[in-house]
Design goal:
Elements: E1 6-11, E2 18-24, E3 43-45, H1 51-54, E4 62-65, E5 82-83, E6 88-89, H2 93-100, H3 103-113, H4 121-136, H5 143-149, H6 155-166, H7 169-175, E7 188-193, E8 200-205, H8 211-214, H9 218-227, E9 266-273, E10 276-283, E11 287-291, E12 294-308, H10 320-327, H11 333-355, H12 357-361, E13 365-370, H13 373-380, E14 395-396, H14 407-418, E15 421-425, H15 427-453, H16 462-479, H17 483-492, H18 507-511, H19 515-521, H20 525-533, H21 556-569, H22 587-635, H23 641-644, H24 650-658, H25 663-688
Parallel strand pairs: 9-13, 13-14
Antiparallel strand pairs: 1-2, 2-12, 3-7, 4-15, 5-6, 7-8, 8-15, 9-10, 10-12, 11-12
Length: 689
């Protein structure tokens, strides 16, 4: 490979299951195990605290990027007994679990949430030591409160409280609204080279390196990458004889033929979830091929297998076993099929792992994605003759987002893992962004300084607190129209009847500053009379608007209460004219006027009632006449039955009687009629004699 070209893994549809490395136009993009065009000795490890700058979040800063970055932050490799957040490893799972419950781990979790760096054990012990010194000096002052609380704060909570008191909350909220990328361990290690432009950085996934090397110095990391360089192999020899009828198709490479074992470094990749399972063993040794006179490199898939079983409940999600555990076993046909498929998938996966045990045991790294208890139990057991164990130091996760478990997704993940990332940075954009951040920081500092300069509200004095309490009580009694209680409260507390509500600058108290003003504005004549006659309130007192209580009264009854008080108290009690109160109104005149108005109202009501009765009767008669006229117009004038039907002759009567009879009955009827006529003549003749 020349210095102006590079290779990249890419899966092709080929019956030999070979992944091709197609040539790219980007001269810097290459596989991790083939960095031969750029000497590794020229590589320099960039400061990892600038990882966020190397792969900026802002699209403006990213001029070109040859690979799609992962969306996940926590892509650091971690073994089964290590803490990626704190950067610690443990010999057993029990110690790891104890560490997760420790104050150090909890403190680092808080640091990551704030976008800050994690601290080591020594730094944390120093922080706790400073905390103990500060607490010991204040034990005597806080002993009473500690006894009341019943228990002391934990070390972690006390440390967080201390830091919260030191920091300015507003400033912290402003500066940490956007969590910085790379607050923990970034998934990529970035390098620069003297043979590359200064604004170009090369990235390698941290998870490809051993856990002990990841925390080492730059020389160790570069030496490890150098040791991983592999020489390409010649293309596999194919049989020259024509394929027989039994074989058919294209022959498989030697790695896939029976009775062969994997030689050379290789990775095991596995994904399981939602009833889908895919596994693959890929050799890291590239193979050189020539096609049409052009060099081409290929990565051989030593073995691959995919399974799919219907185990997920449609439109509801979750496995059937999880649903059975939560709600009990369902007895539907679909549930039975899913249970059978789950058991079959577990058996098939474990059998495949057993068949691939030689390849798995000799793999350099094991990349596994298995989310959920059921999927992890399928791979890691425990079960008899299990192949994988969760404590294996070679196990890695995929430090980027993955899709459904398929062979193509495994190959894409392998390409993404082993491909060198290239990032080109716009220095002008970085400087512009730094200026914006500096301006934002200065604005936040100015805001914090202005807040500190703002005077705190003055604590009210004892007199102001008492005035506020009296204001609340008096206004509540007035609004509930409690006249006796109002007078009693003023008397018992030795308050002036012209007590001014506090504070006086609010709109409510500005319009009605005294109890008399408030009672008049609420149209409460009973309260006005009680305040004037019993409490001796001054009606001449004016509000800030220059109005007396009488001038803000809203109805006649309230204004009459002022005139009655003027009559009862006398003209010398107050300057009634300056208060705006009209001439005095005696009680007798008031009662007479009330009675007169009552009588007038009763007479008006009676007249109105009579008018309504007369009008109702008139309307009823009009409706009756109108109805009769409507009937006469529709049917005509009514007549008697004699007027309507004309008199019939004897012959017409006889014909009407015989209508509908047979001839025999008519003859019989005629004989009877003649017999009656003869009898009538005989009687008449005998009577004349």
């Amino acid at each position: 490979m020349t210095s102006d070209t590079a290779a990249l893994f890419r899966l092709t549809k080929h019956t030999t299951f070979v992944a091709r490395w197609r040539k790219l136009s980007n001269p810097y993009c290459s596989a991790l195990f083939m960095v031969e065009y750029t000497r590794i000795d020229t590589l320099e490890l960039k400061a990892q605290n600038n990882a966020a700058v190397a792969v900026p979040d802002d699209p403006e800063l990213l001029a070109s990027n040859s690979s799609r970055r992962s969306e996940t932050e926590d892509g650091a490799p971690s073994s089964a007994t290590s803490c990626g957040l704190c950067g610690l490893s443990f010999p057993s799972v029990q110690e790891q679990r104890s560490h997760v419950r420790s104050d150090l781990h909890g403190y680092n979790m808080k640091q990551k949430m704030r976008g800050l760096k994690s601290v080591g054990e020594n730094d944390f012990e120093k922080l706790v030591g400073d905390l103990d010194e500060s607490i010991s000096g204040s034990d005597s002052d806080d002993s009473a409160s500690s006894d009341d609380d019943g228990k002391k704060d934990t070390t972690l909570s006390a440390l967080l409280k201390k830091q919260a008191n030191i920091a300015d909350p507003d400033f912290d909220d402003f500066t940490t609204t956007k969590i910085k990328v790379g607050a923990g361990k970034p998934p990529l290690l970035w390098f620069s080279s003297s043979k590359l432009p200064s604004n170009v950085a090369l990235g390698v996934y941290r998870t490809l390196l051993p856990a002990a090397i990841q925390v080492g110095d730059a020389a160790t990391i570069l030496q490890t990458i150098k040791d991983k360089q592999l020489s390409p192999k010649p293309p596999p020899t194919q049989p020259t004889s024509a394929p027989t009828e039994d074989s058919g198709g294209v022959p498989l490479p030697r790695s896939l033929q029976p009775d062969t074992s994997a030689t050379g470094p290789h990775y095991f990749l596995c994904m399981i979830g939602g009833g889908h399972f895919a596994a693959m063993v890929v050799s890291l040794t590239p193979k050189m091929n020539k096609k049409a006179g052009v060099e081409d490199r290929a990565a051989t898939v030593l073995a691959h297998k995919t399974f799919h079983r219907y185990t997920t409940r449609r439109k509801q999600g979750g496995s059937q076993s999880a649903n059975d555990s939560a709600k009990g076993a369902a007895h539907s046909a679909g549930a039975g099929i899913r249970r059978y498929n789950e058991a079959a998938l577990i058996a098939e996966v474990r059998q495949l792992l057993q068949d691939w045990k030689v390849w798995i045991d000799s793999s350099e790294l094991l990349f596994i994605r298995a989310t959920g208890t059921t999927n992890r139990r399928t791979l890691f057991g425990p079960y008899e003759n299990q192949v994988l164990t969760s404590r294996d130091q070679r196990i890695r996760g995929f430090p980027f987002a993955t899709r459904r478990a398929t062979q193509a997704e495994l190959m894409r993940s392998f390409v993404e893992l082993t491909r060198v990332k290239v990032s080109t940075i716009d220095e002008a954009a970085i400087a512009r962004k730094a200026q914006e951040e500096e301006a934002a920081r200065q604005a936040a500092e100015a805001k914090a300084a202005a807040k500190l300069a703002t005077p705190k509200p003055v604590k009210p004095t004892k007199e102001e607190e008492e005035a506020s309490l009296h204001t609340t009580q008096l206004q509540a009694l007035i609004r509930r129209s409690k006249a006796p209680a109002l007078v009693s409260y003023i008397t018992s507390n030795n308050l002036s009847p012209n007590f001014t509500f506090f504070p006086s600058d609010i709109p409510q108290n500005h319009h009605a500053p005294t109890p008399l003003h408030l009672a008049a504005s609420l149209n409460a004549p009973a309260l006005v009379s009680s305040l004037l006659l019993k409490a001796k309130a001054d009606p001449t007192f004016k509000s800030a608007e220059g109005k007396t209580a009488f001038e803000i009264a809203g109805d006649r009854a309230t204004r009459d209460s002022f005139r009655l008080a003027r009559s009862e108290l006398g003209e010398n009690a107050f300057d009634w004219d300056s208060a705006g109160v009209p001439a005095a109104l005696s009680k007798a005149d008031y009662d007479a006027r009330v009675q007169r108005e009552k009588d007038e109202k009763a007479a008006e009501d009676a007249a109105e009632q009579q008018r309504r009765k007369t009008e109702t009767e008139r309307l009823r008669n009009e409706d009756k006449v109108r109805e009769e006229q409507s009937k006469e117009k529709k049917f005509g004038k009514g007549k008697t039955l004699a007027q309507v039907l004309p008199e019939k002759t004897a012959q017409e009567k006889r014909e009407e009687e015989a209508r509908g009879m047979t001839p025999e009955m008519r003859m019989k009827l005629e004989r009877e009629r003649r017999a009656r006529a003869a009898e009538a003549r005989f009687k008449a003749m005998s009577g004349n004699k």
